[in-house]
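User: Sequence for Oligopeptide transport system permease protein OppC below. Tokens please.
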Amino acid sequence: MSDQALASPPIAGRSLWQDAATRLQRNRAAMASLIVLGLIALACLIGPWLTGHAYDHAYQDYVRTPASFESRPTAEAIPAAVQRVAARIRATPSDIAVNGDTVRLTLSAPRPIDQRLLVYFDRSDMFGTPKILATAEDGRRLSLEVPVEHLRFLFGTDGNGRDLLTRTLIAGRVSLAIGLLATGVALVIGVVYGAAAGYLGGRIDMLMMRIVDVLYALPFIFFVILLVVFFGRNFVLMFLAVGAIEWLDMARIVRGQTLSIKRQDYVLAAEALGVPTRDILTRHIIPNTLGPVIIYVTLLVPKVILLESFLSFLGLGVQEPMTSWGVLISDGARAIEGAAWMLAFPAAFLVTTLFALNFLGDGLRDALDPRDR
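Assistant: Structure tokens for Oligopeptide transport system permease protein OppC:
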């Protein structure tokens, strides 16, 4: 048997990122959190098209309707609804009989009933277009068959009669988008700024970090109020304002990592070979700072979502008819005594997302820590 046949096959090595991915997959809490975040994002993305309700449509007959799997209106509520519509027609209903998806009734009045007023059934959220079965007493008595429009509100409705499930999912889009976009702004500014300050060093580093210290001293709420006064309230402003502040912590983290990395042999070798400063930053410095940066990003997203919720709670965030989890929680807090579901469901989505992001951040921290292998 030849020496070549006896030689063992080469062992394939693994990079730091492959090793980190393997360690992350073994972390059950982090993987479960990743699945939960994916499901929440998918629900917020496609869910509003599946609920059957528009997020800004107000059902005047279903204001503050409790959450339920039962379709509305119930058979017990139909006679009262017929009474309300008949009062607008100035007629008296009788012989009300509910039969599945239709209701039969008789309208009577001292004067001939104007059939054009039957449109009030159409305008109701509970009924469709009525059908006249018979006319008696010169039009003073009408026999009608009215279809019943069945609706479901799994999360109930808010104080304006809007479906809370649809609004919670739409709010998730806004809150998650603000969290990701603001974090993206903070990531780009903070990484570039911190890497440049740490690598250049000396007086440039001192000047750049003093600018960071000055920005730290500015009150965040005051800064946001100024932006609102000058540019108005809009969605883009929210993530620009939050991202323009949150990059300060990112810059400090990246600067600290850069101060350590720039003394490594491969960076010194690149400098000796005459590699331009820009290439050293983009090829050697920034890629090797991404471990702590990724961990901080997973912790920054929930922080940004909480900041947006806080600003919306104060009335400085997203405006009607658009909404966010902060806006819904603010509305639910004001109606907690009589409509607790208005607070419970948006708060549950927000808390679940924040917990999942924090567990994922802890898992990434453990997976990317070279000292914990």
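The longest strand covers residues 92-99.
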